[in-house]
Amino acid sequence: MRIARLLFTLAAAASVGVACSQSGAPSPAPASSSAAAPVVVTTAAAAPAGSATPSSMHDDEDDLVIPTEKFTEPQKAFEAAKNVLLHDYYAAGLTEEDVYRAAVHGMLADIDPRMHRWNKLLSPRAYADLTNDLKGELVGIGVRIKFDTVTGHSDVLSTIPGSPAEKAGVRATDTIVSVNGKLWKGKSEREVVQEIRGTAGEVVTLSVLRDDKILPFSITRAKVTFDDVSHEMIDGVGYVSIRMFSEKTSASVKAALNDFATAHARAIALDLRDNMGGSYDEAVHTAELFLPAGTPIVTLEKRDGKMETTSSKGTPTAALANVPLVVLIDHATSSGAELVTGALTEERHAKTVGTRTYGKWSVQSIDELGNGYVIKYTTALFHAPSGKSYDGVGIAPDIEVDADHDAIERASSLTDPKARVAADVQLRTALSLLAP
Fold first, then answer.
1. Cα separations (Å) of 156 from 18, 200, 219?
2. pLDDT tens-digit readout, 197-215
3. Domains and CATH numbers, the chain
4. Which has the higher per-residue pLDDT, 334 or 413?
């Protein structure tokens, strides 16, 4: 059954970078196909958010070349390959389940080399994590991390307000050395995230390096609800940050804009840094809050070259309809966030500040396979209102301001607006553009 359409840039759990909140980020699947409401998620390769450009995030697999010679008698050939693996492969114990699972995984990865990073087989757990992320909730402890493969350590970038981690005293700038007594050198961020996440009510133990001391933490996992939207007034400018497009994003952004109108905001700064996408519908609905009815937002290029343009059905807040708008972007701004950026720069004449975006301009859908697994597969490319596509290239900012991603992440956790602006050169630049 068709479940949703997504725009994402990172693989499931790690996509949001929340060890119990990306992207990345981060993979759904089909079976029977009954049409459903479009939900767009953007997911990229599993690398720390904001740490790489599209080209540098490609691995050897991205040079994958699939043979194109005719594959005659395909069913017979498949059965022959399956039997050889079951009986002669060096690793004993392979089952038909193993082979079929690998076959579906490979089918998605290899069917279209251009899209093999986005077409994925998702396990029941990975799908549950993705579903929770899109709902704005998770079961874990509520920390945002940056994982270092070389050391196996995870730097804590921030904690989710009210989360078990915050209540236990975990701080930004702490470093997680081990989880449940396990070291993670040579492992992946996804593996660490899955170890930290788990069942509500169970305890996860951490060894944390703070300054020159190792501190032990025993933290009980719980359901953590997080809002991917935060907003406030800064020197007359309405500042709103969107980390991901979840089910409640557009409602939260609408509430923020209403607050800005009440406060007579003279301009708006929309922060889409570190936003790797999410729900397609919510990305479109968010753009509608800034664009009057009839304004084109995005064009989907579907099978057989069919083009489908979506225009705004929204009514922007009257008091803010013509105020200046700046969009903050970075290397992790991807998919749904790029869709919104493209629409606002072309149709709202917004200026952009930061670094070039990731460059993922394709749409994936999720279908159930009937056994708990789902497949995520590409159903469309998308274009900005002008018809441009920035797939593999990204959107270049009007004003390029490079900055250390970790420093920006830590600045975002500061509660004092003046201190945060002082520590965030990209935000500071955006606000200077909006100065009266």
1. 10, 21, 15
2. 888 999 999 999 999 999 9
3. 2-127 (no CATH), 137-225 (2.30.42.10), 229-362+382-433 (3.90.226.10)
4. 334
In the predicted structure, residue 60 carries a pLDDT above the cut 60: no
Contacts 24+ apart (CB under 8 A), 107-111: 108/29, 108/375, 108/376, 108/377, 109/61, 109/64, 110/64, 110/66
Residue 128 is predicted with a pLDDT of 87
**pLDDT exceeds cutoff 90 at 1:** no
Q: Cite the beta strand spans of 103-174 per DSSP E.
A: 120-122, 137-140, 143-147, 154-159
Q: Are 178 and 191 in contact (CB under 8 A)?
A: no
Burial of residue 432 (CB within 10 Å: 0-12, 13-18, 19+) is exposed
The CB density around residue 75, as the number of other CB atoms within 10 Å, is: 7
How many CB atoms are closer than 10 A to CB 126? Answer: 22
Closest by CA to 41, choosing from 392, 368, 363, is: 363
Nearest in space to 147 (alpha carbons), one of 54, 331, 45, 14: 14
Fill in the amino acid letter for 173: T
Mean of the pLDDT values across residues 241-263?
95
CB distance 199 to 221 below 8 Å: yes
> Using CA atoms, how far apart are residues 367 and 127, in angstroms rounded to an integer?
11
Position 46 scores a pLDDT of 31
Which is nearest to 247 in space by CA: 220, 210, 286?
Answer: 286
Residue of 329, 338, 230, 324 whose CA lies nearest to 272: 329
Is residue 43 over pLDDT 60?
A: no
What angle is formed at CA 130 by the lines to CA 408 and CA 23, rounded to 5 degrees?
20
For the chain, helix (H) and strand (E) counts, in that order, are 12, 23
Residue with tokens 């080209």: 55
Give CA–CA dist 6/64, Å, rounded: 24
pLDDT beyond 70 at 19: no
According to DSSP H, which parts of 169-248 are helical? Answer: 189-196
Rounded Cα–Cα distance for residues 388 and 381 (Å): 11
Overall average pLDDT of the 375-379 stretch: 95
